[in-house]
Amino acid sequence: PVDLAVIVTPAQTVPGVVGQCVDAGVRSAIVISAGFKERGQEGLDLERQVKAELGRGSMRLVGPNCLGMMNPWIGLNATFAKNIVQPGNVAFLSQSGALLTAILDWSLRERVGFSAIVSTGSMLDVDWGDLISFYGEDPKTQSILLYMESVGAARSFLSAAREVALSKPIIIIKAGRTEAASKAASSHTGAMTGSDEVFDAALRRCGVLRVQSISDLFYMAEVLSKQPRPRGPRLTILTNAGGPGVLATDALIAGGGKLAALSSDAEARLNALLPPHWSHANPIDILGDADPERYAKALEIAIDDPAGDGLLVVLAPQGMSNPAEVARRLAPYAKGYNKPVLASWMGGRDIAEGEATLSAAGIPAFSYPDTAARAFDYMSAY
Amino acid sequence: PVDLAVIVTPAQTVPGVVGQCVDAGVRSAIVISAGFKERGQEGLDLERQVKAELGRGSMRLVGPNCLGMMNPWIGLNATFAKNIVQPGNVAFLSQSGALLTAILDWSLRERVGFSAIVSTGSMLDVDWGDLISFYGEDPKTQSILLYMESVGAARSFLSAAREVALSKPIIIIKAGRTEAASKAASSHTGAMTGSDEVFDAALRRCGVLRVQSISDLFYMAEVLSKQPRPRGPRLTILTNAGGPGVLATDALIAGGGKLAALSSDAEARLNALLPPHWSHANPIDILGDADPERYAKALEIAIDDPAGDGLLVVLAPQGMSNPAEVARRLAPYAKGYNKPVLASWMGGRDIAEGEATLSAAGIPAFSYPDTAARAFDYMSAY
């Protein structure tokens, strides 16, 4: 039996093709074709015909009016995008094909991997609840990201989300927070969006984390694909610059995180290593003249300290700092410590090489340390 | 007479050198040397000696413990940073040397220009109030950005800010919002930070715009250096993708902006140009199959429309979109319309060339359309 049919024929022909698939015992189908409910009454009629055909058997259908789906672990690219994403552990489900193509292109540059990418389209059959349940049980998937414009069948979405969020983070961005945006969304998909406050409250009860900006959604894809989740909210910040350390602390606390209190052992080791006027606390300010050697030794102490649930290393380019070399010294700590390691190499030209080294090592390198601190909060607070 | 002395000698020698400068009639000095109040009592004594020497004449002094300052319009680089920034219209004043080196490095990559860069250091003499008044009258400066850890002389800061903010945007990020961060800041500079709520209220009364993240501060440097300020809050969004348009709208409204209502003339011209199922409203969704020609023609209509105070062009890479070519068609609109033009080319590899074209043309190119919409809000709402 055929596992999957990909249907890319004119809308009027789709009900017939779906019917043939049902008759042939095809198990599932993706309808990429557009021209359904987003085109008005005629399209709605076509959808009804498709539903009737589906009702005759057990075939499930993704779409119509979607970009398709990818499963990079088995090399499946059933979309009309030319490149396939890298394999990873994040499932990304999106009601916007354009957002998917953008994140796909971005992920190739940032080396972010996915367990699956699904463009949901009109959700004539397979909907949020189905997808969340499916990826909740998928062993390759460790977290699920959603871009949503319309909720669809709310009850099935919420009950699936509640169950899956117990074991895997679900992170969502929902367009149409404001009335104006909601109107724009409705003209775009033909779907109505509900009250945003009600939705927000429902998500909180389910344990789903909602983010408000595209950058946060992309960053979550990056950190969850590259680093383990922290066991608690305590972050250790290591920096060669006081100001950026303070701004990272502001963001950390505002997002619900905590500064790890250095263990006395770690503090003693840092005292032995660092000039006397280091900060003597977290953020560990190893001072503006820190060279790669000082960074490397402080790094080892900071990551070893069991008082911290995660480590953020900040570097601002200064006279002695050598951003590329510090990145090489940080790279080996990317894995094996069972706590996330994040980095913020600040600047432009001088830090580009170091940034590339971090990215290749699987350490998310943020342009701004406060953004990194917020990402840590999201990781621990979902 | 000597205009400026740059003092980079050990801290104990600084009072003597300052005294010699005063005697020689030097008009101003920058003390880059560290080792003053941030080192405790001994440093405080040295500061008192410097003050006493300054009291004998009229020389003004920036620092100590600072990176120095730059004025790229006259080619002055009185810092220990190796590269000088590009000339522009933004004055950037920072109490963190590391943040300055980071923004400097970043600005060279992003082609952001400055009228001046000043590292304030300990503010033994020249303080926030002096600097704001000075750059408020500087004809090269059209906006002032501040990174602040401690307010110093609050009265002089607030009265200078109130006066200057009437004619030039002042945008500030203040570290130490939270208690934990405030403690970190105090261990870093030796300065105490005050109540954040009081400070916030004072800023609002002065018309100073406060941002909460480093990224927003850098983005403001970029948009203010490259584009004119909008005359009002009405943004026109042109996009080839519905979802990103909706998310940009959410951010716009949440930040206090408004969607421009298209003029009937613009709508008629768009009706003649676009496929019948375009959005028929702002955001102007020119649809996923938009090619460069359709983009170019819609652009001209959108920018001509007097109903909008600014334009945001969004592109998500799709089959027909050709991000590089659309960027070339957008570039000529960077100047001459007396309204800001912002862009968001979403993605990674496929949009890199277009991003570079936009940047070279002076159009800020954001990775995320909602970030761009927020920057527009900041520009109009300062």
Automatic annotation (TrEMBL), chains A, B:
Q: Which residues form the Succinyl-CoA synthetase-like flavodoxin domain?
A: 87-224
Q: Which UniProt keywords apply?
A: ATP-binding, Ligase, Nucleotide-binding
* Top-level division of the source organism's lineage: Bacteria
Q: Domain (CoA-binding): give its ranges.
A: 1-71
| Coiled-coil zones | none
**GO MF annotation, one:** ATP binding
Pfam families documented for this protein? CoA_binding_2, Ligase_CoA_2, Succ_CoA_lig
Q: Does the keyword Cytoplasm apply?
A: no
Positions of the Ligase-CoA domain: 236-369
Protein name from the UniProt record: CoA-binding protein
Q: Which organism is it from?
A: Candidatus Acidiferrum panamense
